[in-house]
Amino acid sequence: MDLTDEIYMKEVQNGRLEAMAVLFDRYQVRMYNYFFKLSFDASQSEDLTQQLFIRALHYRNSFRPEQGHVKTWLYRMAVNLHIDHMKRQAKYRMTVMPLDDVHGEVVEMTTSNFTEAVGFVTHHFGNNLD
């Protein structure tokens, strides 16, 4: 007979962290699919799934069985994790219009190519941008 998720979560809360492995096995595919439906990015979905279970361990004492099931708690945490992830991405992303684009196409620029853009601007305008 399989024990309920809530019993395993109680074990985790009592310090038997290896019980989280059972919950991981039960929910990792669901959580991965949830993140993948939001991002269509396999690597990001894997990372967020891993972060979710790390977060679940960290906040294990916030689970209250009288407030809902482990599944609901994990999905709520997944929603919050995805929101946090999107906020972090938005901080490092900006939209610019390239100076040499006569059609006005909008290009997404991230921190990974920011140095290249700075080089472009200083090459065409010099270091004095006042």
- Mean pLDDT across the residues is 82
**How does the major sheet shape up?**
2 strands, antiparallel
Radius of gyration: 22 Å
Order of helices and strands: HHHHEEH
Distance between the termini: 73 Å
State which percent range the strand residues make up.
Answer: 5-15%
> Structural class of the secondary elements?
mainly alpha
How many separate domains?
2
| Strand arrangement across the biggest beta sheet | 1-2
Q: What's the architecture of the largest domain, going by CATH?
A: Orthogonal Bundle
Helix content: 55-70%
- pLDDT < 50 runs, ≥5 residues: none
- Shape verdict: elongated
- Output the CATH topology of the largest domain: Rna Polymerase Sigma Factor, Chain: A
Number of helical stretches of at least 4 residues: 5
Assigned CATH superfamily of the largest domain: RNA polymerase sigma factor, region 2, helix turn helix motif
Oligomer: single chain
Structural account:
The protein is mainly alpha-helical and 130 residues long. The chain folds into two domains: 87 residues, RNA polymerase sigma factor, region 2, helix turn helix motif (Rna Polymerase Sigma Factor, Chain: A); 33 residues, no CATH class. A two-stranded antiparallel sheet has the order 1-2. Helix 2 crosses helix 3 and helix 3 crosses helix 4. The mean pLDDT is 82.
SSE inventory with pairings:
Blueprint: H1 5-13, H2 20-39, H3 42-58, H4 70-91, E1 93-96, E2 107-110, H5 114-125
Antiparallel strand pairs: 1-2
Helix pairs in contact: 2-3, 2-4, 3-4
